[in-house]
């Protein structure tokens, strides 16, 4: 069984997410959208059951996702190691029901599936341990 972060460490995780958020905002202001997305996806806290941590990180990833205009360019610049975690966040975005978020997530989902294949979807949906 995977080790999960204890709730008392949640504050430390949230502090790291806040620092990451400031870095992402800076990158977005410099029009470095792909770098912002990479930064958002790095160190995602999937091994915590604390919803505060997951929600805080979703907000950061969401901000970076919504800034992406050139999806093909983003996928060309994104290393394959990010594909599975990106797919998980796309499904989280779709679950919000927010129209602009869902539209963006569906556009990226289509292109990511073309690039990464159906295995990416299957890994995302079957991994119930590392959720975002």
TrEMBL record:
GO terms for molecular function: actin binding. The keyword Cytoplasm applies. Pfam families: P16-Arc. It is found in: Cell projection; Cytoplasm, Cytoskeleton. Keywords: Actin-binding, Cell projection, Cytoplasm, Cytoskeleton. It comes from the Eukaryota. Gene3D superfamilies: Actin-related protein 2/3 complex subunit 5. The keyword Nucleotide-binding does not apply. GO terms for biological process: Arp2/3 complex-mediated actin nucleation; regulation of actin filament polymerization. GO terms for cellular component: Arp2/3 protein complex; cell projection. InterPro entries: ARPC5, ARPC5_sf. Belongs to the ARPC5 family. PANTHER family: ARP2/3 COMPLEX 16 KD SUBUNIT P16-ARC (PTHR12644). Functions as component of the Arp2/3 complex which is involved in regulation of actin polymerization and together with an activating nucleation-promoting factor (NPF) mediates the formation of branched actin networks. Arp2/3 complex plays a critical role in the control of cell morphogenesis via the modulation of cell polarity development. Functions as a component of the Arp2/3 complex which is involved in regulation of actin polymerization and together with an activating nucleation-promoting factor (NPF) mediates the formation of branched actin networks. Arp2/3 complex plays a critical role in the control of cell morphogenesis via the modulation of cell polarity development. Component of the Arp2/3 complex composed of ARP2, ARP3, ARPC1/p41-ARC, ARPC2/p34-ARC, ARPC3/p21-ARC, ARPC4/p20-ARC and ARPC5/p16-ARC. This is Actin-related protein 2/3 complex subunit 5.
């Amino acid at each position: 069984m995977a080790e999960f972060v204890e709730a008392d460490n949640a504050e430390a995780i949230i502090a790291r997410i806040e620092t990451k958020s400031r870095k992402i905002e800076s990158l977005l202001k410099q029009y470095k959208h792909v770098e912002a997305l990479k930064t958002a996806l790095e160190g995602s806290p999937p091994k915590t059951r604390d919803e505060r941590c997951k929600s805080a990180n979703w907000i950061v990833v969401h901000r970076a996702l919504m800034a992406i205009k050139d999806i093909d360019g983003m996928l060309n610049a994104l290393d394959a190691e990010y594909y599975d975690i990106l797919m998980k966040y796309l499904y989280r975005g779709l679950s919000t029901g927010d129209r602009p978020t869902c539209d963006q997530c569906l556009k990226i989902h289509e292109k990511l599936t073309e690039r990464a294949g159906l295995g990416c979807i299957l890994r995302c949906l079957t991994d119930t341990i590392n959720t975002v």
